[in-house]
């Protein structure tokens, strides 16, 4: 019998309430469970061959909390009342968590204490079950005893992909259904009207307001433009969908479908009335648009950039204000950590000598384009308004939190002579996880790894027969803002001199209370006005003329195109070398950094459709929607243009080592988000890997330890606190409160500046008071250091461009607090450069002015000591105010990672680590 299923809420912004209603008392639940439970059928063990595996048992991976992301209603209720877990729902969470306290004594032999063996196949004595989905003779799904990962083996291509779809539905059906509705802007109607659900659907609909015809057109174009591979991708997708829908039918008739369908009112637990809609091919594009927007769409923020530039020019005058703005923007900071660090330059997004076509708004005229209309009930209340505002800010920001990191070392510097890689994506922590593990073996496909649920017809991040690959979000700018001059009324604009009507696209949603989401009834309509230059995001005046600011993304209407690159990565007859790997990922139009390792070589490539801009256009700011400033050879009908050639993208083969933690890719290659300066979390990896490479003899365990050590380190403590203390200690600290705080901070710094437990499971940090002091001090010192010099308006504008801080306990990005990923965006580089300047040290790429104390060391010291005293006296309950999970003042809990419920199964929170969610450790021993 197919596997059972689980789930519950949703994404931070997508979740239904944390707890089921109180009427589900234990006694009545037990009666209900007794009627719902049925015995699980054990499959017949079968051996699996792995003659195509060249890793020699040295490939490992991990993906918490567990592979099983489905739960029946009975299993959901058991979990909610008694805390019991379905098989394989949580068995990867413990090993993942334990690395934080176990890495210091790690050896190669102990790696699989914290990771899973990711060798191909399943040993006969480790087979938990074998099934032939829908009775097919051309595919089997074998699940292993340890983790329950599906190992799909097909004798035909169709059967292989049918099995991949069937296994995906077995493990993630509810989650897949949730996200196809997110991608279509229909989440509240499907899952409930919680404010977080409203915010999530609004965030994505604003960026990708696709009609059904738009979704189908993207499929048709991807197939038509890619020859035989396009036809194969279509056939694969259809087989995959057939597998999904076969499981839906089987689970529906067998009544072992995910229990969330009952809890959200889509199915009746007694009569089985209701339907689970089949998936269709346009659903895959809707899913891809969500993933691409979250992790692979660099750019945006041009209007905010213009606002801060104008504020700088108002404060300092045009020339000096522009200089100040550029120094904070750090487009090409000479002290930035680089992935390609051999001196090669890849100019992109650089400042033109003579900018053309800029359309900066008149001061104070910018307004955000409304998205929500005709709101009623809980679609119009205060929490809905707050969620909508947060969604708008996230959607329009250039700060894309794709996260992820990679450490790759050339075989020249390893003990074995073979390259070693430790890499993976940080996709947040969810229950079930957005990603799922699988192995796929069939004609033209041979891979194991992780794929986003509902898009798992291919492995997207993982390993092939003799190579492995992974990605991090890159964030180069593929999004531009155009100012279109309005004519006739607010919904017509000039296009090439002709007054043209905007297209109106809308989605009407309504909801009512359910068992899972008790939010009262409500409704609204989301409405987007689209131009040939993309959706309208803001309105303003420019030189007194009324304009609409639009957003044009090169991957807009091309969400399906990347399927070809993933198909190639899974094809053992295509990827045989670093060069063919680079060729494969060149077919991925989302903005990612891609890494590769085999037994002899390493490689790197930065993907994305980087548009070739008109001469003189500065991508940092809005430009006029006129032919002279459009992308070269841009066709608005298909949203295609000329793109920079592959050779112009940062790329490399066999560099001594590569690191990436969403840092700058290469010299002169500008990313859209702010913060690529002298202090970046990429430095935490670079410093450690550089030392390992200098010493030589690198092992898998040594590279894992470097990653794990960085994952527990407070970036501010390691790279900024030493200079802060130099300023403070530039003369004797006589104040007793300040002196005590300095001693605590210095002790913590000497111990490594880590946020780590005193012992495994203690739930108390070593040097807890020093951590509290720095968490309280940072926002105080930044404001006191910069606001007086910048002035209120410019300081506020710059904080809108780049957040001041991003501690583990901070609520930030699409996942809110308890999300693990930290220290990606913040003012640590500004503080570092300013402190060193005040200390009289040499600073490459300094800020245009000295800010702390106006450049006076003594005045700066006074500011730091004053704010430090305030921080030292700030209670833990104020620094960590508590939430629905943590009591006020619980520092460890405030930092802790939560598997956010996207379904009915809950998990325990784990100690903070700043590391990939899915992670591989690989060292291939031979090659085909």
Give the SSE map:
Layout: H1 26-36, E1 59-62, H2 73-82, H3 93-102, H4 111-114, E2 116-117, E3 127-131, E4 139-144, E5 150-154, H5 157-183, H6 187-191, H7 195-207, H8 212-224, H9 227-254, H10 260-263, H11 281-295, H12 302-316, H13 318-329, E6 345-348, E7 367-368, E8 372-377, H14 382-396, E9 405-409, E10 420-424, E11 430-431, E12 435-442, E13 445-452, E14 461-463, E15 467-473, E16 479-487, E17 489-495, E18 498-501, E19 503-511, E20 522-531, E21 534-542, E22 545-553, H15 563-569, H16 578-585, E23 592-598, E24 602-607, E25 623-624, E26 651-653, E27 657-660, E28 667-669, H17 681-695, H18 700-711, H19 715-719, H20 721-728, H21 736-750, H22 768-790, H23 792-801, H24 828-838, H25 857-872, H26 876-879, H27 891-895, E29 900-901, E30 919-922
Parallel strand pairs: 5-12, 6-28, 11-29, 16-25
Antiparallel strand pairs: 1-2, 1-30, 3-4, 4-5, 7-21, 8-20, 9-10, 9-27, 10-30, 12-13, 13-14, 14-15, 15-23, 16-17, 16-22, 17-18, 19-20, 20-21, 21-22, 23-24, 24-26
Please describe what this structure looks like.
By secondary structure, this protein is of the alpha+beta class. Helix content is 35%, strand content 17%. The chain contains 27 helices and 30 strands. The strands form five sheets. A ten-stranded mixed beta sheet has the order 3-4-5-12-13-14-15-23-24-26, with helices on one face. Strands 7, 8, 16, 17, 18, 19, 20, 21, 22 and 25 form a ten-stranded mixed beta sheet that branches. Strands 2-1-30-10-9-27 form a six-stranded antiparallel beta sheet. A hairpin with a 2-residue loop joins strand 21 and strand 22. The radius of gyration is 27 Å and the shape is globular. The protein starts with 25 loop residues before the first helix and ends in a 6-residue tail after the last strand. The model is unreliable at 1-49 (pLDDT under 50).
